[in-house]
Amino acid sequence: xxxxPFMPFLPSLPLPRLSYIHIxxxxxxxxxxxxxxxTITVSKTPTPPPAxxxxxxxxxxxxxALPPLPYHVHRTASQKLPIYxxxxxxxxxxQTRIRKIEGNVEKLREEIVAGLALKEExxxxxxxxxxxxxxxWYKDNIKRFLEERHF
Length: 151
Description:
It is built from four helices and six strands. It is an alpha+beta fold. Keywords: Mitochondrion, Ribonucleoprotein, Ribosomal protein.
């Protein structure tokens, strides 16, 4: 006897692509509260407190110690920062474009101007696309700037 699908009017769905599975794993692994496994250990004898470490915990700077930023720059599918060089007007106009910005774009613009010591008028926000456009080629400087902020 042949098996009849539960809902014959619905087509069968294909399996998800492998790249999508990798993206989901990467997103889940970036959330520490989902990755930590709860382990409970019961000890009958009290353990002595650990010796004072050579480096104080306040001196260690981790991701948790950093304040949350009002903006976020998402990476591309190939896990690179979305910073691009553009040459317009026959190659005479050099620009650097930052894409995939979420949150307060104006705050990121202000920090780029201050961090890279650029003039206010050289860094512009395209309100329609949400991109930041900088006059000149600053891809390496901006990449370093964003990596310092753990993007």
